[in-house]
Amino acid sequence: IGAEDDAPTLHHRLGAIGADLLVKTIPDYVTNKFLARKQSDEGASYARKITKEDGRLDWNQAARALWNRVRGLVPWPGAYTFLSSEPRAQLLKLWQAEVAGQSSAAPGEVLEAGKNGIVIACGQQSLRILVLQREGGRRLNAAEFLAGHPLRPGQRLN
């Protein structure tokens, strides 16, 4: 898995690899040249179904863990957080992010908000949000989002 991969790019690449393997394997299966082996149960584990709640970001986690969550959960259920605002908190869905620099600020605190992204303090390091979407809105890069929804350093996401 490359640093630029997310769930859709990985799905596409693995689909192509799987298709190639089927083309190579099916003729041997049809002619009984295929040797099937029972898979060992040792080391097997259960993966529960992913739910929408799995997408909620916990800013106390390390930036790298949150970056991987954003990449792994796009497009569904999507990684999301809430911006504290009046009259109610706004849901923000993250579409693209990257690990940024070190931070000693409280997790969830907005450190920067500008044309290069929105930088949020995490439990370790910080996360730069590059593409996001407000609930009911359309997907925007950070600069476009900030033009209509200004954020200031010190505001909090939770």
Highlighted features:
158 residues, alpha+beta, Methionyl-tRNA Fmet Formyltransferase, Chain A, domain 2, six-stranded antiparallel beta sheet, 27% helix
What does this structure look like?
The protein is of the alpha+beta class. The chain has a domain of 97 residues: Formyl transferase, C-terminal domain (Methionyl-tRNA Fmet Formyltransferase, Chain A, domain 2), CATH 3.10.25.10. It is 27% helix and 23% strand. The chain contains three helices and six strands. Strands 1, 2, 3, 4, 5 and 6 form a six-stranded antiparallel β-sheet that branches. Strand 5 and strand 6 form a beta hairpin. The longest helix has 24 residues. The two termini are 29 Å apart.
- Share of helical residues: 25-40%
Shape: elongated
- What fold name goes in the CATH topology slot of the domain at 52-148? Methionyl-tRNA Fmet Formyltransferase, Chain A, domain 2
Order of helices and strands: HHEEEEEEH
CA-based gyration radius: 20 Å
* Gross CATH architecture of the domain at 52-148: Roll
Beta strand %: 15-25%
Distinct helical segment count = 3
Count of distinct strands: 6
> Could you report the average pLDDT, rounded to the nearest whole number?
94
Distance between the termini: 29 Å
What is the highest CATH level, the class of the domain at 52-148? Alpha Beta
Broad structural category = alpha+beta
What can be said about the biggest beta sheet?
6 strands, antiparallel
What is the assigned CATH homologous superfamily of the domain at 52-148? Answer: Formyl transferase, C-terminal domain
Uncertain parts: none
